[in-house]
Specification:
By secondary structure, this protein is mainly alpha-helical. It has 10 helices and no strands.
Length: about 200
């Protein structure tokens, strides 16, 4: 498998989600969002998992939008804030209420410990791929050539440092959130030991 073998959807919603991510994310967070989709697409292709590429792409681009100052919420965890942004974005893109809700669900579930693939393939793939990119979990399940090409095109930049600060801040301000639990469980150490940074 090579980079050019990956399914990368090109729809108005996908282009718009990339534009939003580009406008609000730092370069490190933008590249992380793009890699999250690419790792998911590569894993799905390798494992024979059928998925909705447009839904997964839009969710990948917006899954961390709740971390940026303009969309950060003091009331809900960042993944829920991001899910609400995605719901509103998808309404503007003309998606049905059911499809908007799916984007919300996929984004919220990316923080779960596990999402069953049979119940929610897009949620499963985003939960897996974001874990791969942030903490290095199961990165050996992405073909080596795809890993090399993706990291060459979308380098990691300062994602380890930036995300460590973001998740620690979220955990401190929202002690009941998944982010707070991850911090207590040592996520920052895992981020700093990510094999993708070797």
């Amino acid at each position: 498998m090579r980079f050019d073998d990956l399914v990368i959807p090109d729809t108005p919603a996908c282009r718009g989600a990339l534009e939003v991510a580009t406008g609000y994310h730092t370069p490190s967070l933008l590249n992380h969002s793009i890699r999250a989709y690419l790792w998911a697409a590569a894993y799905a292709q390798d494992q024979g998992i059928a998925f909705d590429a447009e839904l997964l792409y839009v969710s990948s681009m917006l899954h961390d939008i709740g971390l940026v100052p303009e969309f950060d919420s003091n009331a809900v965890p960042y993944e829920e804030a991001g899910g609400h942004v995605a719901w509103a974005f998808c309404a503007g893109a003309g998606w049905s209420p059911e499809r908007r809700s799916r984007a919300y669900e996929v984004i919220v579930k990316h923080m779960w410990a596990e999402v069953p693939v049979a119940e929610d393939p897009e949620g499963h793939l985003l939960e897996l791929s974001t874990g791969m990119d942030i903490s290095g979990r199961r990165t050996d399940e992405i073909p080596a050539e795809v890993r090399r090409e993706v990291l060459e095109r979308y380098p990691r930049l300062e994602i380890a440092k930036e995300f460590s600060v973001c998740v620690a801040d979220q955990g401190a301000r929202k002690p009941a959130s998944f982010a707070a639990g991850f911090v207590r469980d040592g996520i920052v150490d895992r981020i700093l030991r990510n094999p993708l940074d070797d």
